[in-house]
What we know:
This protein is an all-alpha fold. It has one domain. The chain is built from ten helices and no strands. It starts with a helix and ends with a helix. The mean pLDDT is 95.
Amino acid sequence: MPSFPIHLVVADMLSDELEIVSKPDFFLGCIAPDSVNLTGFASQEIRYGAHIRSVDYDIWKKQLAEFYKQNLDRFKEHPDYLKGYVFHCATDIAWDEAVQPHLFAYLQKDGKLSREQITKLKWEELFRFNSMVIGLDSFKNSVCLLEKAEPMDIATVSVQQVQQYRDYVVNDYKDKISTQPPGFLCMAHITACTQRTQELFRELIK
């Protein structure tokens, strides 16, 4: 899964092409699923509920498409918030498909590592990459619009969780930033993730 700066950059890069009307709603929806992780990684049950997720990626995609259709009427006044929420999950899948295998291969280059070790190294590299990503105009543009959106309950995430996470992203996210440059991740990986997200998202909301 990518970090929230990557989520916002991908969202900003595609928002015009996807004809998003309310970018504030869209960007807030794009970070809302991770609200459950504000104070540390939530349990798998909570994370999977917030991300409409299944271990099986084909089932996950099907569940996301159904979630979108089932909630269209509920979010008819804020359709881009719903789109952003589904977009976040599509970006998670796209990252796992288009980038993460290459990242794992890089991290495993010096020998076989345990799942815990690879996860730790993955997040360390993502935090290093964040130091570059937060300097992009696409990140700055999206963060500036977040406060203009109205947090709402969605899926298993409460309005309070979304609001607290939004405030954290806007005002204080330095614990997710490293002063060191990334060793592997680069803009080419964001491009690959963006291309795959675009394909997946169009399939999910068609």
